[in-house]
Amino acid sequence: MSGTFPLLKDPIAEARRHWQEHGWADAADGMAAVTALMRAQQILLGRIEAVLKPHGLSFARYELLALLSFTRNGSLPMAKASARLQVHPTSVTSAVNRLEQAGLVDRVAHPTDGRATLVQISAEGRKVVLAATKDLNAEVFTRTGFTVEEVDGLITTLGRFRRQAGDFDENARLDDE
After folding, report:
1. Contact predicate 28/19, CB 8 Å
2. Among residues 2, 3, 102, which one has the least CA distance to residue 52?
3. Average pLDDT, the chain
4. Measuring CA to CA, which residue among 53, 61, 45, 65 is closest to residue 129?
5. Which string of b and e fits 32-47 if b means at least 16 CB within 10 Å?
6. Of 96, 90, 86, nearest in space to 61 by CA
7. Which distant-in-sequence residues (6+ apart) come within 8 Å of 170 by Cβ?
8. What is the pLDDT of residue 115?
9. 156 — alpha (psi -120 to 50), left (phi > 0) or beta?
10. Per residue in 110-144, pLDDT tens?
11. What is the distance between the alpha carbons of residues 53 and 152, in angstroms, rounded to a whole number?
């Protein structure tokens, strides 16, 4: 983080210059692009976390609540939630523990699979995720800092990158619980 005031020079541009000076010119642009993406992620996550803090949520817990709110029955097996959120099962367990303590989700027995546990959003969880979503939409998602054209370009470029990296199969069908 740069603190409370902007830096006088772009440290990523400086790093790129150093890469070139040290004989790594063929990798300098890629290093600058990756580093810029990582920094942009930090900035955006900081904005998101600031909006979610008054709701008592982290972004990880918000994502789980949002996912549950979009399902047909407001519940998913914990393993399926892990897969959909693309996080390790222990991360989902941690998020569920915190959300359960806050009364926003419940663990319930799977009706047909005795080995599985469902995580189910509570009525309070639905209220919290709706309020948090309204705030995120107003304060972050409609004010990204990018033009409409840049957002479209990012969605296209990053979607292609993720697909080629094996992040998703656009032909696969998601089954809803």
Report:
1. yes
2. 102
3. 93
4. 65
5. beeeeeeeeeeeeeeb
6. 96
7. 163
8. 87
9. alpha
10. 888 888 889 999 999 999 999 999 999 999 999 99
11. 29
